[in-house]
Design the sequence.
């Protein structure tokens, strides 16, 4: 294995652990405010701008059916309502209720408090803005490189299937 592959491999485990920690944090914050992570995500998307289920699903990269199920749960729980959609008669808009907006605000405040605490702990561990900027650059380069790899692999595969 080349040294660059070895360096990349050493990055994968902590990134996966970070992803798991972020998911855990989202679940904890959501639960502490009477939500699930899925409800929080869909309610947040609708809170930014009342949207159809299809638009929310597209924006989140999720299946429409799963977003529909969560949206229906939000409405049944009184956290959102359906509003007419001036662009499409059958695709109603999901709109957070007053209670839903309050839960979003409370969860956002808790998330911000968590972020501030984590950032303070990072500073205490001598990680300053420059170190974080370098980490962001590394992660963005990995993401871009992986996307390029798969785009090229797809192009090659499609070219092979046409031949």
Sequence:
């Amino acid at each position: 294995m080349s040294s660059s592959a070895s360096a990349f491999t050493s990055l994968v485990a902590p990134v996966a652990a970070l992803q798991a920690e972020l998911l855990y944090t989202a679940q904890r914050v959501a639960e502490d405010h009477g939500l699930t992570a899925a409800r929080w995500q869909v309610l947040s998307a609708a809170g930014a701008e009342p949207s159809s289920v299809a638009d929310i699903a597209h924006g989140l990269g999720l299946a429409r059916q799963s977003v529909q199920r969560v949206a229906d749960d939000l409405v049944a729980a009184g956290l959102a309502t359906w509003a007419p959609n001036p662009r499409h008669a059958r695709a109603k808009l999901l709109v957070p209720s007053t209670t839903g907006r309050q839960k979003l605000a409370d969860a956002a405040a808790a998330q911000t408090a968590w972020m501030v605490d984590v950032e303070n702990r990072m500073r205490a561990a001598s990680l300053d803005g420059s170190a974080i900027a370098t980490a962001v650059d590394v992660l963005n380069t990995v993401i871009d490189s992986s996307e390029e790899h798969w785009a090229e692999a797809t192009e090659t595969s499609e070219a092979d299937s046409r031949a």
